[in-house]
Amino acid sequence: SMSCLCGFAGAGFAATAADANGDGLLTLDEVQAVMPEVTAEAFSAMDLNADGALDAAEVEAAQEAGLMPA
Q1: Per residue in 29-42, pLDDT tens?
Q2: Fewer CB atoms < 10 Å away: N or C end of the chain?
Q3: Phi, psi of 54 (to 5 degrees)
């Protein structure tokens, strides 16, 4: 359904598709499931608040920095 787009409304399809459990956060496993080229080191660089998950703002920043496809 399209209802899960709320968390990543501005983040693009890749991030929305990656959010397997629809909680609005992306874990390393969720990111690597759709973008296997993302390393743990790259994920850590994207995880600005170091909470182990990427929120919509972090995904947007990562996309703007070219670290993640939009």
Answers
A1: 999 998 899 999 99
A2: N
A3: -100, 125
d(CA 12, CA 39) in angstroms, rounded, equals 20
Measured in residues, the chain has a length of 70
| Whether the Cβ atoms of residue 33 and residue 44 lie closer than 8 Å to each other | no
Q: Where are the alpha helices (DSSP H) in the chain?
A: 13-18, 28-34, 40-46, 56-64
Predicted confidence (pLDDT) per residue in 1-39, tens digit: 444 444 555 556 667 788 999 899 999 999 999 889 999
Q: Is the separation of the CB atoms in 42 and 28 below 8 Å?
A: no
Q: Which two tokens mark 1?
A: 């359904």
Instruction: State in Å, rounded, how far the first CA of the chain is from the last one.
Output: 20
